[in-house]
Amino acid sequence: MNILHPPSPADPTVVITRVAEHQWHALEDDQVVGRGDATHRPDGRLFISIDSWHEAVFRLLAASMLTELPRPVYTVVDEADTDQTASWLLAGFSIARRERGYLLPTDPRTTGLATVSPPAGVTIIPAGRAEEAPLRALDRTLRAEIGATVGWQTMPAEVIRLPKGDTVVDPSKYAVAAQGSDYVGLLRLAAVTRQPRIGLLAVRADHRRRGIARALLAHTLTTLHHGGTPAAWAEVNEANSAATALLETAGATLTSHNLELVYA
């Protein structure tokens, strides 16, 4: 959203029109003065965004969209943008969680991960080489553990939940930690335009605190470095102290604080 001017009570009437299933326009004298968009993220949650010139137009768009869309509805804002945050809160949203955005160097000389090895008996299977059946079984186990503990509301939007419990869309994106033939941890790396993004790093509950997550991270970042990629991106729930500590001790730079807001 881009609010440049305060509302003016003398402005002509603004008409809100739903121009497509997930798109709204604010029209003033047949000119578009604001736009609203709704998008279903891969996990099924509905996120909206609004781009407007006047705060009054933002309020009209928000009211119209929230009346027509099913709840809950989410949006993400930069916590540093206090005006934008205030506008969403006034529209009825509340803070669901705070998220930190990190830029991770891949050079082992910077990350300090050059000497990191998996614990005894554990091997790292590079992305694209894991067997699909045990990978999918591990994924189901991890997701069941997440659902029973911290809950899905703490996970990034790209951690996909699909109807029949089969959530591994592209097995080639996963590096896996294995103890013998037993898969015990995984790291999902999504390829995006500017830099790769760590979408999920998780270890089975009965194998945590052994250094497996650190070994998976070291393997993935070093592989990216050897391929000529200087940095990767990761987003972490601020409440996840273990994940933030892992990234920060690997030389990650905190670059953003985002708020995930919900209209329930």
UniProtKB/TrEMBL annotation:
<feature type="domain" description="N-acetyltransferase">
    <location>
        <begin position="122"/>
        <end position="264"/>
    </location>
</feature>
<dbReference type="InterPro" id="IPR016181">
    <property type="entry name" value="Acyl_CoA_acyltransferase"/>
</dbReference>
<dbReference type="Pfam" id="PF00583">
    <property type="entry name" value="Acetyltransf_1"/>
</dbReference>
<dbReference type="InterPro" id="IPR000182">
    <property type="entry name" value="GNAT_dom"/>
</dbReference>
<protein>
    <submittedName>
        <fullName>GNAT family N-acetyltransferase</fullName>
    </submittedName>
</protein>
